[in-house]
Amino acid sequence: MSFARFIIKRSLQGIFVVWGVVTVVFLLRFSTPGDPVNFIAPLDASPELRQRIAEELGLNQPLYVQYLDYLAGLLTGDMGYSYISGTEAAARIFARLPATVELAVAATVVAIVISIPLGVVSATRRHEPADYAATTFSLAGISTPNFWLGIMLVLVFAVQLNFLPTSRRPVGFGQAFELLVLSGNYAGIVLWLQHITLPAITLGTYFTALVTRLTRSGMLDELGKSYVDAARAKGLPETLVRYKHALRNTLIPVITVLGLQLGSLIGGAVITEAVFAWPGLGTLVINSINTRDWPLIQGSLIVIGTSFVFVNIAVDALYAYVNPQVVYD
Fold this sequence. Notes:
mainly alpha
């Protein structure tokens, strides 16, 4: 099977998974006890508004008709109307999505930059102080709850040292980058970095610790194999043996974890966004649940599920680059 057919096959499988997510999310609203109108209309909605909502949503239609209408709406980008906020659900969700993606990508970058070199150093200096320090760091990172770490970072770096801001996102990466390119002004990038540093560290700490442990164990396994001894016997520099040959083979399981965790970070940034008042999708989901805004809840869950599927397909594609021995079946 060629690489193109492999990607097409994975994409078709991803479409079925997304369809399953949409179906479950759709049925979730109707499996909840009570009148669905009560979960869509504002708490102080008049009987006339409730009747109009029921007619507009087709709630008097059979369930399969409502389901097909909902699927047709999603295919055209219509996720419903939020009567509580008075806006289209899709507009609000996609306005929040860039902030969550920024945070997830920044946390992933923090994890990659720290964990892979740390894991390599830990493996190549086994039973030395550097190995013990890296092991202690990874154990502490895995054991530390995100919400506690976020609060501690705010108390130390924002409140006590006044070094970084406590919360909010005054400027997005796109705006800051545009300002830098068009006018050469670094103020936007600096402001963006100041506000995303603490949330990215908070969200990426567990991820960093996990990848550090994975890189260390993978490197130890690869450095003990015969091809490494053969490379050393041929006189290749130790740096080339470690970073070109051993590390490349170690990255295969690391990429798997990176892909799965990036999808999890997009959907699991709820606590971090709440601690830092980060205006992302997680904060929107919490607020929507509190106000019982079902169109926003359903739309957000579908976007998160679709993002997870997309990231996993991208990870499958990366396998071909890192490991040519992958069989496309």
